[in-house]
Amino acid sequence: MLKLIGVFTSLFLIVIIFLRIPQENTGLSSFATKSNLLGSPQSAQRFLNTLTGIGILLYLAIAVQQNFKI
Q: For each successive 10 residues of the chain (70 residues), what is the average pLDDT?
């Protein structure tokens, strides 16, 4: 069960990191202003940063737990 959660966490992190776009690109800001789905670009960026941080901590916790399981 823990291994399955680890795989989903890994895939989630890969997807969320690929969704991140550089600051120079205006794609996120133009999408946010046109659709008002994500709110302001700063709040969307902050949300993605928080989500990525939580995902990394979850991944590390699962990796450590699996390492102790022999």
A: 87 82 55 52 80 91 85
Cα separation values, 61 from 1, 8, 15, 17, 18, Å = 14, 14, 19, 19, 22
**∠ at Cα 48 (2, 63), nearest 5°?**
20
Residue ranges of domains in the chain? 39-70
- Please tell me the pTM assigned to this model: 0.66
Q: What three-state secondary structure class fits 10?
A: helix
Q: 25 — phi, psi (to 5°)?
A: -75, 135
- Token look-up 């709040």 returns 43
What backbone torsions phi and psi does residue 15 show, to the nearest 5 degrees?
Answer: -65, -45
pLDDT on residue 43: 78
